[in-house]
From TrEMBL:
Domain JmjC: 1-103
Gene3D superfamilies according to UniProt: 6.10.140.1470, Cupin
Protein name: JmjC domain-containing protein
Region forming the signal peptide: none
InterPro entries (UniProt xref): Cupin_8, JmjC_dom
Species assigned in the record: Pneumocystis jirovecii
Amino acid sequence: MSNILIQIQGSKKVRLYPPSDILYLQFPPGSSSSKILNIFTEKSTDLKNTHPYEVSLLPGDILYIPAFWHHAIYSLEPSISVNVFWRHLESQYYATTTNDVYGNRDLKAYEVSRGLIKKIVENFKGLSGDEKKFYLGRLGAELIDISKI
């Protein structure tokens, strides 16, 4: 979901990552939080491949955060801010859940597809690691190729 961050009091640093950086931000499958504990101090090799934008927010500032842009926030002092989220797609594309407090659940198609991936992997049960790697690698390459719409 898209988001507007409104800084009320104090100041904070916000780092934004474009959607293309997702593979370098160490998000476990199906998670909305990175495994990186403090992205502001982390020196991971993966982060060298990212393209962050950084901004400081002061009282009265408003920052638009587009859908799929991951962000990290570092408060420079005690501060108060308000987030306003909204959905930019029709409701049928969102996973139906009652416990999506932050509005950051993945889209329904992604959640359903993750279940299908588990079924695909089960199809290779009993084969050697090399055989699994070969065929699952081919399937992965097909998915990447298909995604180049």
